[in-house]
């Protein structure tokens, strides 16, 4: 079966960050091989992508021309995002950067090892990676906009699967079903007192005439709103977390709140205006030092839940729904889903997060780990217990066992078609230059030409 030539672009977006993380190795003599408006593609970038695909071990690796084409599409998305005013908030970039750096630290064992591997300070490395992450997130957001209306029906999934030649049906690796129950680390009493003291000091200074906006720029740890003087813009009722909104709506215009604690940290709020069902507020946000949070209480809590599950006093799924603080998995009985397929069946191979892979590899089906440290997707410190629910033997794909995975394949193919149609039109809105060496790739030629 011939897949869309843009199918590889999703994986290429993920490789943008990997390329930025390359340790110091010899590279080809660099030169610009393509330009899309103000965005350039370097020969070293292409060569790095080609090498990344080879190292990924994926079957049916794309050709150099296909990888080059996907890079051009990615740069086009960046160019069009600027034209269409599609942006990614700084706080989203910083959150992703923090998460990636923590993954690296876990992989290398320490920050010292990271510095030795890349020959750069952590600060310098972060500065280099920040732009790569922003580019990745912006490209992803543009891609989501292009494909937002693309849906798939069960009938389309069946047609997709039945059209696959028998000798091309995918061989599925071993898959596992894993659940977890998460409890967040708690702010210590000393940390709370410190943050309350700082915020009440800011409040007193504002009441004495100092600019709230300038203090927000200097001190707020919400980097996105902080640059705007703490301005959150107009928010509809129900849009903000409950403690924040309740405190804000009790205020009169230009009045300051007491310190408000939410899942994001500690806030000092200034209400500007209420307009119907909307309100306009500023805030200064301070977060506790996540390295100093208290994990003793959540560890004891999870240990007691683990004992109850092992004694069959409560089922794991019910315990997850009642006690887990991971909102993403709580309603699903704690079951973790594959980030790509959204299925609870996850491939037990190199695509799985390394820490999770090695933990599961040492377990037997039906067992539960003791409480272990965990970092949530938004970077918060936590503790969790893992439940190894099931393991599925490798097999050739079929609709009965692999419908969700086949549905994702079919949906990706449909999305790729949408991107291909978008490319045929959008290429007329931007300037694209390709050096002679790669013109034989026929990137500017679309399927309808």
UniProtKB/TrEMBL annotation:
SUPFAM superfamilies found in the cross-reference section: FKBP-like, Triger factor/SurA peptide-binding domain-like
InterPro entries: OMP_Chaperone_SurA, PPIase_dom_sf, PPIase_PpiC, Trigger_fact/SurA_dom_sf
Signal peptide interval: 1-23
Pfam families linked: Rotamase (PF00639)
Sequence ranges assigned to domain PpiC in this UniProt record: 173-273, 276-387
Keywords: Isomerase, Rotamase, Signal
Domain of life where this protein originates: Bacteria
Molecular-function GO terms, alphabetical: peptidyl-prolyl cis-trans isomerase activity
EC number per UniProt: 5.2.1.8
Enzyme class label: isomerase
Stored PANTHER family: CHAPERONE SURA
Protein name per its UniProtKB record: Peptidyl-prolyl cis-trans isomerase SurA
Organism: Arcicella rosea
């Amino acid at each position: 079966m011939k897949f869309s030539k843009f199918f590889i672009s999703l994986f290429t977006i993920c490789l943008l960050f990997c390329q930025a993380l390359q340790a110091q190795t010899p590279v080809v003599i660099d030169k610009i091989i393509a330009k899309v408006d103000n965005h350039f593609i370097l020969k070293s970038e292409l060569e790095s992508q080609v090498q990344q695909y080879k190292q990924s071990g994926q079957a049916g690796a794309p050709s150099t021309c296909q990888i080059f084409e996907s890079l051009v599409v990615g740069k086009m998305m960046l160019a069009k995002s600027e034209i269409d005013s599609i942006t990614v908030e700084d706080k989203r970039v910083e959150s992703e950067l923090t998460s990636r750096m923590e993954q690296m630290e876990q992989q290398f064992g320490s920050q010292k090892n990271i510095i030795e591997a890349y020959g750069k300070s952590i600060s310098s490395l972060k500065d280099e990676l920040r732009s790569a992450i922003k580019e990745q997130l912006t490209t992803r957001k543009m891609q989501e906009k292009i494909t937002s209306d693309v849906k798939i029906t069960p009938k389309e999934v069946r047609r997709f699967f039945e059209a696959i030649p028998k000798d091309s049906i995918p061989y599925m690796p071993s898959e596992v079903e894993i659940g977890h129950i998460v409890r967040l680390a708690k702010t210590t009493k000393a940390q709370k007192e410190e943050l309350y003291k700082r915020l009440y000091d800011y409040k007193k200074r504002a009441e004495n005439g100092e600019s709230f906006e300038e203090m927000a720029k200097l001190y707020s740890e919400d980097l996105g709103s902080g640059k705007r003087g703490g301005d959150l813009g107009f928010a509809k009722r129900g849009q903000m977390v409950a403690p924040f909104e309740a405190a804000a709506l009790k205020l009169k215009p230009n009045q300051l709140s007491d310190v408000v604690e939410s899942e994001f940290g500690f806030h000092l709020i200034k209400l500007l205006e209420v307009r119907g069902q909307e309100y306009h507020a500023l805030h200064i946000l301070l977060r506790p030092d996540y390295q100093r949070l208290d994990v003793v209480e959540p560890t004891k809590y999870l240990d007691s839940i683990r004992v109850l599950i092992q004694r069959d006093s409560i089922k794991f799924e019910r315990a997850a729904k009642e006690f887990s603080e991971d909102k993403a998995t709580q309603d699903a009985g704690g079951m973790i889903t594959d980030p790509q397929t959204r299925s609870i069946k996850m491939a037990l191979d190199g695509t799985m997060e390394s820490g999770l892979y090695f933990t599961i590899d040492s377990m037997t089906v039906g067992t539960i780990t003791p409480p272990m440290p965990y970092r949530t997707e938004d970077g918060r410190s936590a503790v969790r217990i893992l439940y190894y629910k099931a393991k599925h033997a490798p097999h050739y794909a079929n609709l009965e066992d692999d419908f969700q995975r086949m549905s994702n394949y079919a949906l990706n193919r449909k999305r790729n078609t949408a991107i291909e149609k978008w490319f045929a039109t959008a290429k007329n809105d931007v300037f694209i230059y390709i050096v002679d060496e790669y013109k034989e790739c026929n990137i500017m030629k679309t399927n309808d030409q």
